[in-house]
């Protein structure tokens, strides 16, 4: 079923590169939440019709969702996808990437196919080793707010990927996300910062909600206040262009309530722990890339 949007929030579509994808067919290898977000974005933006999108998944429930809600053909095997599509997106967990690549290799045409992957930590070199020589690959790291059209994504190209290949993948992502191109050594940092980042915010909202309940709100009231506060603060960062330190300073009156809260957070070392958490996520991405 289509994810519900908070009241007052609408899906925003990014500025799409001027590239024509209408003659291409998108193949989603895996039909989880990120694949769904990408499919919804592509269809909403009119980049491709549903007839030019195909997905595969082992789950009958996920296949049914794609077919019923999106009108997208969904199958239970990757062979049918690679035969039908030329623009492939690998939407599986890093632990099964090598197995999936081995299955794709016999039918992978390096002239016809472009493979992008959202698998955390998996470098383009590892994808290239699992495919025929000369395979064009793109590594991408989106995040789950793609589901509401507000994702943050980064991408980088493999050895053989062309500018046209990167433009095509960027067009797909921009249908539901902002997109940055980075050098591949930065991709693990992207995973730690924005790929895992929504969980950090949800963790904060959990704590704010718990505090609100302790102060006498119902959980529903506290959650609404916390969620809207985070949404509004994020939009202030985007629209004002001001540094977060400056925006925080403007909220923090001397000897006021916010200063008291900031002093509590500083005394607990929250900033240092947040930095450590992001860096640990980035390191875990590197570990996954090494097959650990």
Topology-level CATH name of the largest domain: Rossmann fold
Q: What percent of residues adopt helix (DSSP H or I)?
A: 40-55%
The strand order across the widest sheet is 3-2-1-4-5-6-7-8
| Percentage of residues in strands | 5-15%
The CATH architecture of the largest domain can be given as 3-Layer(aba) Sandwich
Number of domains: 2
Low-confidence stretches: 1-14
Q: Give Rg in angstroms.
A: 21 Å
**Main pleated sheet:** 8 strands, mixed
Number of beta-strand segments = 8
Instruction: Indicate the overall shape.
Output: elongated
Structure description:
- This protein is an alpha/beta fold.
- It folds into two domains: 26-188, Rossmann fold (3-Layer(aba) Sandwich); 197-289, Orthogonal Bundle (ProC C-terminal domain-like fold).
- It has twelve helices and eight strands.
- An eight-stranded mixed sheet has the order 3-2-1-4-5-6-7-8, with helices on both faces.
- α7 packs across α12.
- The radius of gyration is 21 Å and the shape is elongated.
In a nutshell, what does this entry contain?
The chain is α/β, with parallel strands linked by helices. It is built from 12 helices and 8 strands.
